[in-house]
Design brief:
CATH architecture of the largest domain: Alpha-Beta Barrel
Radius of gyration: 21 Å
Largest sheet: 8 strands, parallel, barrel
Number of domains: 2
Distance between the termini: 27 Å
Number of strands: 12
Order of helices and strands: HHHEHEHEHEHHEHEHEEEHEEEHH
CATH superfamily of the largest domain: Divalent-metal-dependent TIM barrel enzymes
Helix content: 40-55%
Number of helices: 13
Strand content: 5-15%
CATH topology of the largest domain: TIM Barrel
CATH class of the largest domain: Alpha Beta
Strand order of the largest sheet: 1-2-3-4-5-6-7-10
Length: about 375
């Protein structure tokens, strides 16, 4: 089955391919020529014909067209490190620079890095185009792909000026992602935020403020504000050749069904899904598989978390729901990234929050744990067995 929203995605890829070929002198097709070529044929025919002209083959009716961004390297689920793990929020110690996070990703055998969209890592105010390109070049030298940028946005505020500030932030973040060469931006509907303290960060204070500002407004009013912001930002994403990945993160969103409802209502080819199993309220094997099958080709990003230890058998122990999730992702043909994040309050011993060495240990063990699961369910034969 060929999904209509895949057409827009492939048109973006076609233009990217043609741009590179024009620079190499392989073909000459102006915007005017493209429009003329598209006249008199369906969008599917246009995409197929243009891909054929570019030397990359024609889309076949018999091949499912999963709407995931093109990824480098071998097919299969890829392992990412989300930079929030080393942002200096949850552990005691300084934040690592993004250059240092790239080094950690390579050291612990991750395939790529997702940049958190706030200071000191990825606030777009700090990242003009030239700086983005320098970091991307550094990452490529290390064999690390910058595969996503994560927004910390909140479209839900009842105060219009606050919502407009969030849209302005998102527009700049999308610009930054494009300058990094990134095709995916993780997005929230609502995000209360985090408060920082020298010893411990907290979600609870920010959530109390969020609850207070929303108590006089209905859920449907809040939903409508979120939809309005997402519609506008999806347009900006389309202009930049970027896809937004809506995460199943509270508040406003309660489960994956809410995510899909919003995707339907926004009705944009530039809005997809980031289904994350740790924040699903029902983590039963049946519900995990149901959610994965329902989301299907809209899935373009995912995350995992937790704290890890090595057992007596020398194997790294993780949450029991992850094997079901990885298996479900393979069943739907997902070939994108699943990124590790250490993003919750850490142990406090003798009045001291765990230091950066705790984040280092968990980033290392998490990679080993998830790599083992990805390798276990690498082929269709593995799924059957």
């Amino acid at each position: 089955m060929f999904y209509s929203y895949d057409v827009e995605f492939y048109k973006i890829e076609v233009r990217h391919i043609l741009f590179k070929k024009i620079n190499l002198g392989d073909t000459k097709m102006s915007d005017k020529s493209e429009k003329q070529a598209q006249k008199g044929m369906s969008r599917r025919q246009f995409v197929g014909a243009t891909l054929a002209a570019a030397g990359v083959g024609v889309l076949k009716d018999s091949v499912p067209c999963y709407s995931q961004p093109a990824l480098r390297g071998k097919p299969g689920i890829k392992l990412g490190l989300y930079s929030i793990t080393f942002l200096g929020v949850w552990y005691r110690g300084r934040a690592l620079t993004l250059e240092e996070v790239i080094n950690r990703a390579k050291k612990y055998r991750y395939d790529g890095m997702e940049i958190d969209g706030k200071r000191p890592h990825g606030n777009p105010l700090d990242w003009p185009r030239k700086r983005c390109r320098r970091l991307r070049a550094l990452a490529e030298e290390q064999g690390i792909e910058i595969y996503s940028v994560a927004a910390n946005n909140d479209f839900s505020s009842p105060i219009p000026e606050h919502r407009e500030c969030q849209i302005a932030y998102m527009r700049e973040l999308i610009r930054m992602a494009s300058d990094f060469g990134v095709k995916t931006v993780r997005v929230f509907l609502a995000w209360p935020g985090v408060t920082k303290h020298p010893q411990v960060a907290k979600y609870s204070i920010a959530r109390e403020i969020w609850d207070l500002t929303h108590k006089h407004f209905s859920e449907e009013e809040t939903w409508a504000w979120c939809r309005e912001g997402l519609i506008e930002c999806a347009r900006y994403a389309g202009d930049a050749g970027v896809v937004l990945a809506l995460q199943n993160h509270q508040p406003v969103i309660k489960d994956y069904k809410d995510v899909l409802r919003m995707v339907r209502e926004v009705d944009s080819p530039h809005l997809k899904v980031s289904l994350d199993v740790p924040i699903m309220s029902d983590k039963s094997p049946e519900n995990i598989r149901r959610a994965a099958k329902t989301v299907g080709p809209l899935q373009v990003l995912s995350h995992f978390g937790g704290e890890y230890e090595r057992g007596p058998d020398s194997k790294v122990k993780g949450a029991e729901f992850y094997p079901y999730f990885i298996r479900a992702m393979r069943e739907i043909g997902y070939n994108g990234y699943i990124g590790y994040e250490l993003c919750h309050p850490l142990p406090v011993v003798n009045g001291q929050t765990a230091g950066i060495e705790y984040a280092e240990k968990n980033a290392r063990l998490a990679a080993e744990f998830m790599r083992g699961l990805i390798d276990k369910y690498k082929t269709q034969k593995d799924l059957i067995e």
